[in-house]
Structure formats: structure tokens, C-alpha cells
């Protein structure tokens, strides 16, 4: 197992010291990253001591340690999962051939595009979340936010390393651009839609970490299958950090639901107004936020039919998540049944060659994975004796990419008239009034052990420490 070298300016397990040119290039990029972090990273708390985990090994057992760190001093580094000896390409036309340690010239531009797209999401999410610390519901949540943020920063490092090490001058230019585009910027926005949406409240943050970080999980799983071994190894290690981000989302939503149910019992009603008057978030509003973030995250998988996805699969560049669980790694003779609008207000089925449907295959795995939280939250609601259930809307609802782009579809999947969509969408998606109400709840709570009134106290510990621990020390 390779050790992580923390003696160097850039911690790494890639023997950076053995390649002076690359080391110098990355040391040149490092201060730019830090400037970006100070300017567009978490607002106000750069001097605070935050109880953070830092990777110390790439081994799944005991890979991190915990301690107080000022965020700008976090040891962002370059960590790749250990190399698998004699690893072979696991899918596509090149199945069974040795994986690549260098980028083949013919796949250079497509690999660069994927790495840049992946890399672009990481700083984007930090930018989206930069003001949340000012309204955190507890110190525990503040720490979790910062943990997620520093790790997204490290994931950016992972992609920047690949660009610098394998793509020469273009790679260095792309690395600069990753710090030049900004979430929501009118002139230089982030590449993918969801990463330009504002995350200005904690309900959105938990939805984002539940749904959008889970897109991250599935994209990273697909890239972890890549024949380009340094990319596969980078993604394998990123997945270990990513798991916690989704946990933050699931736990956060679960705690909100729990608090809402307590209030519903207190006021003896499911009535949204009554729940809001008592300072909690009604289930109908939670459902509207689910509808928004789930549909936005579905778009991140690309179109159901994609020649990009087909050639990425054929060429061994991007596989399916958990490729080994499939029997047929060539996927040449199979088809995937997809639903498309029939052009007359109805729907028809289309059989798409499997390779062209790889985005849809990945999206379906993501959707199935999203169900878990809903089973748990609905169990809580049921136990409390209430009728409402939270649910995932139809994948056809509010899509902006693919066959259902711009189609008027209700959350239950039925195709409706455009006028009906316009009049009813306020009941399905967060309205301005919802936003104003949620913002009115967002008041900072930073006394150890105290929690805002709209969310239940955390039940989970951080590294064996109880929720009333002083996770962030201000100065
Ligand atoms: N918004 O053939 P198509 C994460 C573009 S999240 C805007 O349908 P393709 C994280 C697409 O780029 C994971 N544009 O799809 C989470 C293409 O443009 P070009 C991020 C979009 O190419 C939380 C065109 O439409 N990682 O890690 O097979 C916090 C036609 O595309 C969108 C990745 O995404 C959209 N939603 O697949 C922090 C992995 N969707 O090239 C981090 C790398 C599609 O024609 N990316 N387009 O100009 C990919 O694998 C692919 O680029 C995509 C699209 C899956 C995104």
C-alpha cells in the first residue's frame, strides 16, 4: 500500500518529487487555488479551528484522522487508490486489453472533456455553498458543511493533477479555467446546469448532498471503471470521501422530517400553515424541494440516447457503475427500452441500442439508489400516524435535458396541457413564498449542543464525539 507523503508542500502518493516539472507546475497552481478558496470558499470562517477529517491513507480501513484545522491550512493533496496489478479493460471493444497509464492520442480530447466536466463540479459546489455557514442550524452542521467543502476542494485537486500530469499545456490551461468559471456567473458559468443553481438555505443544501452528490457517486463509479488507470484510481479514492457527503444529505433531510413530525403531533394537524406557524417545514414544502433537486440532478446524466456515451463505452473510457456486476461487458446486441414523447401529447416506447443508452442505465441505477432515504423517512411519517408520503417524482417531470426536455409533465408522470403546467407548477416546485419562508427560518445557531427549531438534533456522532462537542472554535 502506498503511503501519503505529507512532508511535501503538496501531500501526495504519486511520487511528485520524482517529477520536478510537474511538481513545479502544481506548486504554481497551488496559490491560485488558495486565492480562489479564500475569495469564493466558505464566507467568514477561514480563521476558525474546525474539527476535520484528513486522509492519511488510501486503504479503506482507517484511512483518515481527525483534528482541528483552519480550513486554508487543510492538506489538500493528490491521492490515488493503489494500483491494481495487471488490471485489464473491463468493457467495450477493447475488453481484456491492458489498461492505459498514459492517455492514448486518439482519446485525448474526450478524456480531457470528461475530466474537466468532473473537475468543474467540485469548486462549483463550494461556491454554491459559500454563505451557508452564516445560517447554520448547529455547530455540528457547520462542521459537516466545512468537511464537505474541503473534500470537494480535494476532488478538484484530483482532477487538476490529471490535467497537469497527462494533458500538457492544454491541461494546464484547463486547470486555470476551473478557477475562472464560477457558479451562476452570467459570462462564465459552471458547465453543468445544477451547479449554477443557488444553494442559499440548508434545506437546499441537504437536498443537494442527497441527490446531486449521489450523481457524483454514480459518475465517479462509471469513471472508476475507465481504461485510463490514473483516472480510475483517482475516482476510486474520491468515492470513499463522497459517501459521507450523501450521508450528510440523508441525515439532514431525516432530521428535518423528524422535527416536522414532532410539530405536527404538537399542533395535531398536517396543515402546512399550522406547521409553519410553529416554526417547522411542512412536508408539502419538503416535497417541492425534492421535486426541484431530483429533477435537476437527473439532467446531470445527459440524454437517454447519446452517441458520446456510446463511444465512451466502446473505447473503454467510461463504463457503467459496478461494471463487474453485468454479465455482458460488450453490450453489442442488447437494447434498452426507453420512453419518449410521441409528439401528439402521449408517450411511446423506443428500443435503443444499449451502448447509446448508457446514460440512461446509469440514471436508473441512481434513481434506485435515491429510494433508500424515502423508505426510511416514510417509515417515520407512518409511525407518527400521518397519511402524507414523500416520493420521488417521475423521471419525466421538469426535465431540461434529453427526450423530455421542456415537456409539460406532472410529478406522477402524466403528460398534461401546457396551460395546466403553468397554472399548477407552483404547487409542485418551490415558490418565491416558500423560499422566503425557508429563509426566515435560517438563523445561525453556534452554541455547542444547541440546534435550530426547524431541525431535530443529530442522532449520529462525528468520530465518536457527541453532537454537543465544540466542533468549530471561533476566534
Ligand atoms: N447541463 O450526449 P449527452 C459531482 C451536455 S457530480 C448542461 O446527452 P454525455 C459532484 C453535455 O456535456 C458528477 N449540459 O451526454 C456532486 C454535452 O455537451 P457537449 C459530475 C449538459 O456527453 C456534488 C451535451 O449536453 N461528473 O461529482 O454522454 C458536489 C450532450 O450530452 C448537461 C460528471 O458529470 C447538463 N445537465 O454526458 C460536487 C462526469 N447534461 O460535449 C461534485 C463527467 C449534458 O456536446 N461528465 N450536457 O458540449 C460526463 O460523463 C458527461 O459529460 C455527462 C454528459 C454525463 C455530464
List strands and helices in order, with pairings.
Blueprint (H helix, E strand, L loop, with lengths): L19 H21 L8 E7 L8 E7 L37 H21 L10 H28 L1 H13 L21 H22 L5 H39 L4 H6 L5 H17 L7 H8 L20 E7 L5 E7 L4 H26 L34 H11 L3 H10 L30 E2 L2
Antiparallel strand pairs: 1-2, 1-5, 3-4
Helix pairs in contact: 1-3, 1-4, 2-3, 2-4, 3-4, 3-6, 5-6, 5-8, 5-10, 6-10
The protein binds benzoyl coenzyme A.
Description:
Helix 2 runs antiparallel to helix 3, helix 3 runs antiparallel to helix 6 and helix 6 packs parallel to helix 10. This protein is mainly alpha-helical and 475 residues long. The chain starts with 19 loop residues before the first helix and ends with a strand. The strands form two sheets. It has a three-stranded antiparallel beta sheet with strand order 2-1-5. The protein is built from twelve helices and five strands. The chain binds benzoyl coenzyme A (BYC).
For the CA atoms, what is the radius of gyration? 23 Å
In N-to-C order, the SSE pattern is HEEHHHHHHHHEEHHHE
Distinct compounds present = benzoyl coenzyme A
Structural class: mainly alpha
Per the principal axes of the C-alpha atoms, what is the gross shape? Answer: globular
What's the arrangement of strands in the largest beta sheet? 2-1-5
| Low-pLDDT regions | none
Amino acid at each position: 500500500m502506498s503511503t501519503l507523503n505529507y512532508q511535501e508542500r503538496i501531500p501526495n502518493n504519486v511520487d511528485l518529487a520524482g517529477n520536478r516539472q510537474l511538481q513545479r507546475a502544481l506548486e504554481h497552481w497551488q496559490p491560485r487555488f488558495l486565492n480562489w478558496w479564500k475569495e469564493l470558499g466558505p464566507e467568514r470562517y477561514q480563521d476558525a479551528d474546525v474539527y476535520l477529517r484528513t486522509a492519511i491513507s488510501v486503504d479503506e480501513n482507517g484511512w483518515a484522522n481527525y483534528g482541528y484545522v483552519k480550513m486554508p491550512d487543510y492538506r489538500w493533496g493528490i491521492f490515488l487508490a493503489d494500483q491494481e496489478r495487471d488490471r485489464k479493460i473491463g468493457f467495450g471493444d477493447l475488453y481484456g486489453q491492458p489498461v492505459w497509464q498514459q492517455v492514448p492520442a486518439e482519446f485525448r480530447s474526450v478524456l480531457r472533456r470528461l475530466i474537466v466536466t468532473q473537475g468543474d463540479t467540485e469548486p462549483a459546489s463550494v461556491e454554491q455553498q459559500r454563505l451557508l455557514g452564516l445560517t447554520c442550524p448547529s455547530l455540528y452542521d457547520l462542521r459537516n458543511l466545512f468537511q464537505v467543502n474541503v473534500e470537494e476542494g480535494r476532488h478538484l485537486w484530483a482532477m487538476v493533477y490529471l490535467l497537469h500530469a497527462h494533458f500538457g499545456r492544454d491541461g494546464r490551461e484547463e486547470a486555470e479555467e476551473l478557477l475562472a468559471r464560477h457558479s451562476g456567473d452570467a459570462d462564465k458559468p459552471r458547465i453543468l446546469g445544477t451547479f449554477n443553481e443557488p444553494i442559499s438555505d440548508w434545506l437546499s443544501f441537504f437536498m443537494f448532498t442527497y441527490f446531486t452528490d449521489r450523481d457524483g457517486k454514480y459518475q465517479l463509479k462509471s469513471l472508476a471503471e475507465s481504461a485510463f488507470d490514473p483516472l480510475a484510481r483517482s475516482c476510486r479514492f474520491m468515492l470513499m470521501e463522497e459517501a459521507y457527503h450523501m450521508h450528510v444529505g440523508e441525515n439532514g433531510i431525516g432530521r428535518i422530517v423528524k422535527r416536522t413530525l414532532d410539530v405536527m403531533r404538537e399542533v395535531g394537524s398536517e396543515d402546512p400553515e399550522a406547521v409553519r406557524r410553529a416554526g417547522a417545514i411542512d412536508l408539502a414544502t419538503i416535497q417541492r424541494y425534492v421535486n426541484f433537486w431530483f429533477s435537476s440532478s437527473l439532467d446531470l446524466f445527459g440524454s437517454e440516447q447519446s452517441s458520446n456515451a456510446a463511444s465512451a463505452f466502446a473505447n473503454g473510457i467510461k463504463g457503467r457503475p459496478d461494471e463487474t456486476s453485468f454479465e455482458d461487458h460488450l453490450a453489442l446486441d442488447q437494447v434498452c427500452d426507453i420512453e419518449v414523447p410521441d409528439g401528439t401529447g402521449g408517450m411511446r416506447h423506443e428500443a435503443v441500442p444499449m451502448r447509446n443508452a448508457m446514460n440512461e442505465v446509469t440514471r436508473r441505477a441512481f434513481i434506485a439508489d435515491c429510494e433508500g432515504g424515502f423508505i426510511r423517512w416514510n417509515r417515520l411519517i407512518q409511525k407518527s400516524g400521518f397519511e402524507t408520503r414523500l416520493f420521488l417524482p417521475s423521471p419525466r417531470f421538469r426535465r431540461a435535458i434529453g427526450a423530455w426536455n421542456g415537456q409539460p409533465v406532472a410529478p406522477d408522470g402524466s403528460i398534461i396541457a401546457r396551460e395546466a403546467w403553468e397554472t399548477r407548477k407552483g404547487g409542485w416546485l418551490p415558490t418565491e413564498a416558500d423560499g422566503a419562508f425557508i429563509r426566515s427560518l435560517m438563523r445561525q445557531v453556534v452554541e455547542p449542543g444547541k440546534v435550530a427549531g426547524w431541525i431535530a438534533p443529530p442522532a449520529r456522532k462525528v468520530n465518536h464525539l457527541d453532537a454537543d462537542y465544540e466542533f468549530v472554535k471561533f476566534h
